[in-house]
Amino acid sequence: MARVFAQEDGNLSSRPITTSRTKSYTDIDLTFTNKGNGDIFKKTDAASVKQAVKNLLMTNETEKPFNPGFGGGLNKFLFELSEDTDNTEIEDAISYAIYNYEPRALVKGVQVSINEQFNKVDVLVQFQVINNRENVNLNLELTRLR
């Protein structure tokens, strides 16, 4: 008994051709600047992921409806600077948020510098964009308004 295959199947006794597909990431630019024709700009690939990570980290927990755990919740650390806030707490919160809520980024490193005198936290997040292995540095400065 012989098996019958469609002609599109080709020679099934040989190894299949393996291909990879690169996915492009696209988001709208949250500055909403106008192109002049009424359209808005969009961010692609690494710029898109960088904007999403920044937006994620600057969002407070319970701020997003129906997803109370979403966000980095970094603002809460600004009010605890006079207490015993450790750099590792902030680093862990950043890594946790990106790992759980931004699948397009892989955290490579987080550096935190706390300046209690000026109520300021400087953050450097180093991550890799998953689809093209591009390394991106994101600098954030968290300050408390008086």
Description:
The protein is 23% helix and 25% strand. It has 146 residues and is an alpha+beta fold. The protein has a single domain, classed as Nuclear Transport Factor 2, Chain: A, CATH 3.10.450. It has a three-stranded antiparallel sheet with strand order 3-4-5. Strands 1-2 form a two-stranded antiparallel sheet. The longest helix has 15 residues.
Topology, element by element:
Elements: E1 26-28, E2 42-44, H1 45-58, H2 75-78, H3 87-101, E3 105-115, E4 120-129, E5 135-143
Antiparallel strand pairs: 1-2, 3-4, 4-5
Quick summary of this structure?
β3 (105-115) and β4 (120-129) form a beta hairpin. The chain is of the alpha+beta class and 146 residues long. The longest helix has 15 residues, at 87-101.
